[in-house]
């Protein structure tokens, strides 16, 4: 008889100093597979369950991210439904939630490594399918991957794609994606993608590709071996535009999520390397389509913006202030983006409300923004709009402060807030 692994065992029995921290998550099984800046810790999911006034059989997260909500739900015996627009992240979530046959994992890893040394690839054809900066010689003396590393990456990927076991194939692919930035000449931070210091004098040894990949897979197999017997192994995962796929969800006992913040940062850019190298994006049209399927939280793609909802005095005031400085903003679409952000998000919340059980709760962690000195109080606006939909406000709790952009002074003056609404 198998004994289920507990939630506490998974999080290493840690005690958070306060709710607005997720320090140490990289040491938690499954969460180390790909570095991810989490909006909240898994403990929030347990707290939401303990504070629910009804029995919780299922939980919805319409912005799946790295799968924190879904994975925590499995450990806590709740069936998760998750929506994620980014196909790489969706496959990463799937890899974490799956049930594996241990006997095939090590065997398939050995097969991939062995085959990767004999398989033939045409790096020139591969180079043509990628943006020109990806593989040496790149553009104007800059490239993301040294040629020797690129060859090893794509040989390993080709070997993975030959596997018959679809679960193992997906697992190995997302783990290869998880090491790409480490073996590249770039780094990802709040400003997007930048070249590492002195990168052109520090060529990456192709042996490092094999070493880091094998360590990553070995660690993942260890995580799976130790924590596979979760209380629930069921899940539902939808890949695509959350604004549309929300209609495909059914009865909801609990909803927990953190949407992209309206800070003009396109989160697609963070995973651009993985999306192209692993074959999720084949051309510029694919890239543009993915950006258009994301929530209107950025201005990195041309789109038709919905008008802002009219049920919030705080939003009305914010929109007037943004309109007054429109000509001074670094992008004149920012006011339209902010208005559309609230239209899209509250429309999703309204759809969720109709599917929620009586007395069920919706938990969301949101972040404020600032443009040209105009503060966008996201939490305040969403609370006003939610009251207009008929929700009662259970909790509004300060989470932490975020650093504003360099243009806004770079100070920690933007609030992140936990909002709990009751149906």
TrEMBL record:
Protein keywords: Membrane, Methyltransferase, Transferase, Transmembrane, Transmembrane helix
- Single biological process term from Gene Ontology: methylation
Membrane-traversing stretches: 374-393
Q: Quick check: keyword Transmembrane in the entry? A: yes
Superkingdom of origin organism: Bacteria
SUPFAM superfamilies with a match to the protein in the record: S-adenosyl-L-methionine-dependent methyltransferases
Q: Which molecular function terms from Gene Ontology are attached?
A: methyltransferase activity
Is Transmembrane helix a UniProt keyword of this protein? yes
Name this protein carries in UniProt: Site-specific DNA-methyltransferase
